[in-house]
Structure prediction request, 223 residues.
Amino acid sequence: MSKVFSLIRRGGLVAVLFVCVGLPLTAMRIADRSHQVTIKTIILIVISLLLYYFIIMWARQEYHNHNQLPIRKKINLKLIIGGYLVILASEYILGVLDIVIYHQAETANNQSLMTILGRNPLVTVVFAVSAVVLTPIAEELVFRGVLMNLFFKPNTFWPKVILSGVVFSAGHISTNIISFLLYCVMGMTLAYVYRKSGDIRNSMLLHGLNNFVAMLLMLSRIF
Prediction:
């Protein structure tokens, strides 16, 4: 019975963090409804940043409380670059399949994010910066640092990686199995980099690099 309660408690923690990690973006969407920078816009942006701070601090504490890996404190550029190449290759292959099978040239998640850019200048700047810096930190702490250390035995590798990829993909908008697999593979790659290196900063840097390139491409289509 105690194992059941423990599983429920751990699942509940992940569920709450899963919901919370999407709140800053929700605040930015509301702020973006106005094309001008108003007091309301500024307040909502501040709320968004405070939410990021709260989530990062909370997830960081949970990560340190439940971490099963010895922290190696080493940035592995080779692993980061290799992981990014895997993400690029998977995005290309799955992107082609998405076009051929579902006639969808872009994921619904990216289409949704594009609507935030280019209307309100303050929201655009804050969203672009947070997507490259704050989102990777928050999501890696939640989907890798907390999630991967709460389930399965410490020496388990692939089940943790797969679980992280599936839950990570569930947090992104998908309209078909191909787009779901795209984010799932991305999440699994980030999880692999974290587990292989033992330093969550590596998956944070890989996540930030991926978002940086994606944000540049999005902004280039607007300006």
The chain has a mean pLDDT of 94. The two ends are 58 Å apart (CA to CA). DSSP finds ten helices and no strands in the chain. The CA atoms of residues 102 and 176 lie 8 Å apart.
